[in-house]
Amino acid sequence: MAFKHVFNHPEVEQLELQGYRVISGLLDIYSPLLAMSLADFTLLVREDSHRAYPIETRLFHKLSTKHRLAYAEAVEGLQHLSPEQQAIREYYFRARLLQDYISGMTDLYAYDEYRRLMAGGIIKLRNNYQQFQPVGCLDFCKDGQYLFTIANHLCRNFRLLINSE
Fold first, then answer.
1. Most buried pick, 58, 89, 94, 144, via CB within 10 A?
2. pLDDT tens, 101-118?
3. How far from the centroid of its chain's Cα atoms is residue 146's Cα?
4. Angle at CA of residue 25, ends 153 and 157, nearest 5°
């Protein structure tokens, strides 16, 4: 009954689509951090800067200290694993770093962050351009579906990264 009369209402569907666009856009914006090699990202975390990656450094600085510390602590616990397993787990924790940061945003903050970083709708992501259209107001509720969407987006990017190597 609720799905038929509430969740399928055009206004609700519009808000969900806008929320999806904002979350997808933020994940795309922060995806250069996922594209970095393990060695380069480790240097960025350790030094809080990486001269060869100025955009990634700025994106990293936008992440909350709480999430950055949680990532560092999780990666510290990987020392007993083989180098191959360390790389796999580190990438998982890096994806979680972004997922946790974005999913912890309020609706208004996510929308404002998306608009600020989109700089008029066009953003350069390392060697390619992607066009985004700004969305209207954002007032969607966060629930398991949005976390599922974030996880799917990260997994899709991970598969693309693995297949491109």
1. 94
2. 999 999 899 999 999 998
3. 13
4. 30
